[in-house]
Design goal:
Blueprint lengths: L2 E8 L3 H12 L5 E5 L4 E8 L2 E8 L5 H9 L2 E8 L3 H10 L10 E3 L3 E6 L9 E6 L2
Parallel strand pairs: 1-4, 5-8
Antiparallel strand pairs: 1-5, 2-3, 3-4, 6-7, 7-8
């Protein structure tokens, strides 16, 4: 893992949250997109070298909707940039971690993604991200 790629924050209302974070950072999101297969709309903010992703559920069965029902708004995951996501998945499986996506899937912001189950990571959902070439 090379660096923290972004921190994901689950929100109930993306438009209202975009306004809030625009006030915090002093600039609007640089990107908004919907990831239909995950049932989520996202926006991304830059703050120096750091990236924040806001996530709003688009249907009640999406992982974000379930998270919001259980825990409310707040930090959902920490994403790490990796050079080779397939190799990293195999390495982490070998270390005993539960990988939720053994085959990487297309995520937001032009990334291949996979997640580690929070039961094995002190309650933190970990996302692995690799830029799609």
């Amino acid at each position: 893992m090379r660096k923290i790629e972004h921190i994901g924050i689950a929100v109930k209302n993306l438009e209202a949250s975009n306004q809030l974070f625009e006030k915090i950072f002093g600039n609007p999101p640089y990107k908004e997109e919907e990831v239909i297969n995950e049932g989520v709309k996202t926006s991304f903010f830059m703050n120096g070298p750091n990236k924040i992703e806001l996530l709003e559920a688009t249907n009640p069965e999406s992982p974000i909707a379930k998270f919001l029902d259980k825990k409310g708004e707040g930090i959902h995951h920490i994403a790490f940039d990796v050079e080779n996501i397939e190799k990293e998945i195999q390495r982490l499986k070998g270390e005993g971690f539960i990988v939720l996506n053994e085959t990487p899937k297309k995520g937001a912001d032009n990334k291949l993604v996979a997640f580690l189950h929070p039961k094995g990571t002190n309650g933190v959902l970990i996302e692995l991200c690799q830029e799609i070439q």
